[in-house]
Amino acid sequence: MGILSRLSYQIRSKLNAVLNNTSDPKEQLDYSYEQMRDELQDVKKGIADLTTQKKRLQKQRDRLQENVEKHNEQAREAVRQDRDDLAERALEKKQAKLNQIEELDAQIESLQEKQDQLVEKKDDLQQRIEQFRTKKETMKARYEAAEAETQVSEALTGAGDEMEDVSRSIERAEQQTEDMEARAAALDELEGSGALDSALSDGDQIDQELEELSTQSQVESELDTLKAEMGKDDGEDETESAEAEASTDEASAEATTNEDAEKAVEEANVDEAEVEKELAELKDEESSGSGSA
Questions:
Q1: Is residue 126 domain-shared with residue 266, that is, in the same domain?
Q2: Which of 104, 137, 158 is the last residue of a domain?
Q3: Residue 151 shares a structural domain with residue 253
Q4: Given pLDDT bands bounded at 50, 70 and 90, which one contains residue 284?
Q5: Does 11 map to a domain?
Q6: How far is CA 88 from CA 77, 98, 99, 116, 213, in A?
Q7: Residue 57, pLDDT score
Q8: Residue 233's pLDDT is what?
Q9: How far apart are CA 293 and CA 289, in angstroms?
Q10: Which of 20, 96, 189, 277, CA to CA, is 20 to 30 A from 54?
Q11: Is it the case that residue 10 has pLDDT exceeding 80?
Q12: 90 exposure class (CB count in 10 Å sphere: 0-12, 13-18, 19+)
């Protein structure tokens, strides 16, 4: 499995873990983006470490190359001094250094190939990260727009939790208002019937009855006035008949009074002066009564 494949697998694994542990898509996307950037930094660090190792091998190769030149010069000097043995030893060292240089060249070449591959994959990963960032911002914008639209729809339809609380508050307010209205109506009914006044004060019922009598008297008086206006002749005839009946009653009363007075005189055996006096007083009373009538 290549480095990029391993990185892709790690990113997918971490992304799935994030999706399972978080609930806000915006946070998920931001977290995934940061993880990809961290992976990119790790790749860059790996490339830097590989380059450092290659540079170290190159410096070692350069030192060996210097030794090769040195051993070559030593061999030449030994030949000039007729020291073939020293020349052979110098050439042997030279050949050993050349072998080491060959090995180092192979390692450097291999590291360079890996470095080139990592750089290419790093560029590819960086491009993917940039694409993901663009898509991330687009998805976040879409999510925020959908979230705002959902909130507006919930507010209009009353489907959200807050609107549900508002609906319950309205229902409670309506119920309390209806209870208060019913209580006010009951109090009005009690006050109208007098039951509430009787409970508050003993004199309220008496005042109410007197007011009712006064009202009834006013109504009867107005009714008599109305009858008088509509039938004045009948009222005059009734008045004359009433006066005639009153005169007849007075005459009968006078005769009865005289008879009683005479009988009283005879039974009491009083003198004539007192009888006359009493008769005169009776006549005066009768006269006074007639005048009043």
A1: no
A2: 158
A3: no
A4: confident
A5: yes
A6: 11, 15, 16, 42, 158
A7: 92
A8: 46
A9: 6
A10: 96
A11: no
A12: buried
80-104 pLDDT, tens per residue?
888 888 889 989 998 998 999 999 9
Domain span at residue 290?
246-293
d(CA 108, CA 54): 6
Q: Which of the listed residues 101, 127, 158 is the one where a domain comes to its end?
A: 158
Whether the pLDDT of residue 151 is over 80: the answer is: no
Total residues belonging to the chain? 293
How much is the pLDDT for 293?
47
**Whole-prediction pTM value?**
0.41
Nearest to 10 by CA among 31, 46, 35: 35
Q: How many domains does the chain have?
A: 2
CA separation for the pair 200, 154 (Å, rounded): 53
- Kindly report the number of other CB atoms within 10 A of residue 287's CB atom: 11
Q: Which tokens is 221 given?
A: 């008086």
C-alpha gyration radius of the chain: 69
Q: How many CA atoms within 13 Å lie on the side-chain side of 273? A: 0
pLDDT in tens, 175-198: 888 888 888 887 777 766 666 555
Phi, psi of 185 (to 5 degrees): -65, -40
